[in-house]
UniProtKB/TrEMBL annotation:
SUPFAM superfamilies: FAS1 domain (SSF82153). May be a cell surface adhesion protein. Residues 1-25 form the signal peptide. Pfam families: Fasciclin. Residues 189-225 are annotated as: Disordered. Keywords: Cell membrane, Glycoprotein, GPI-anchor, Lipoprotein, Membrane, Proteoglycan, Signal. It comes from Camelina sativa. Gene3D superfamilies: FAS1 domain. It is found in: Cell membrane. Belongs to the fasciclin-like AGP family. The lineage of its organism: Eukaryota, Viridiplantae, Streptophyta, Embryophyta, Tracheophyta. This is Fasciclin-like arabinogalactan protein 12 isoform X3. It comes from the Eukaryota.
Amino acid sequence: MEQSLIIVLFTVLLLLLTTTPGTLSQSSPAAAPAPAGPTNVTKILEKAGQFTVFIRLLKSTGVANQLLGQLNNSDNGITIFAPSDSSFSSLKSGTLNSLNDEQQQQVELIQFHVIPSYVSSSNFQTISNPLRTQAGDSAEGHFPLNITTSGNTVNITTGVTNTTVSGNVYSDGQLAVYQVDKVLLPQQVFDPRPPAPAPAPSVTKSKKKKEDSDSSGDDSPADASFASRNVGSVCDAVSFCVMSIMLAWFYL
């Protein structure tokens, strides 16, 4: 009797296991990884440290939000030259305060540190100058930014500032952030050039014609006087000849 009960229980247990296969061994599927968040320049700089002033200016000028939109809505990428806090400390006293109250020049200063395309460290040797920045016109006297290399050294000149790239802060194929030793000061803001003088007006044909006419009028009295003197001399010579012939005939 006991053996029959054991056999029945074993059979029931076996049936339960075979009718619900995998019930005991099946595990929950792994959760899918959360999508990556938008690339945030200020958070990258905060994590790197020593960029407090640059971060503050990025936020106060609105350039940080502009970069956030570009990075997450464009495939062109962005390159940033980030001055460290010591770079701002080395500026002449009152440099930032001298910028206009409307913040336009502050915006241009920060945008001047941004190139609207991704530039890897290996591309610096073949880059075309001058580089166009977010600040605008790269012509001489405006916002020119030139980069040259010497070995592993990357030199940057703005016409006002000469500095070097001192480190690679961040790079992911879309955003590149490099540390620079000085704040990049653009010519347009810190060394504006006077506007080129307007070209002298050209002489019009009518004016030139009038001058030529006046010149011809001025010459005509002299010519008439010369002709009059020549006619008088001829008459005097003819009269002298006639008188001489008459005297010679009278004496003969």
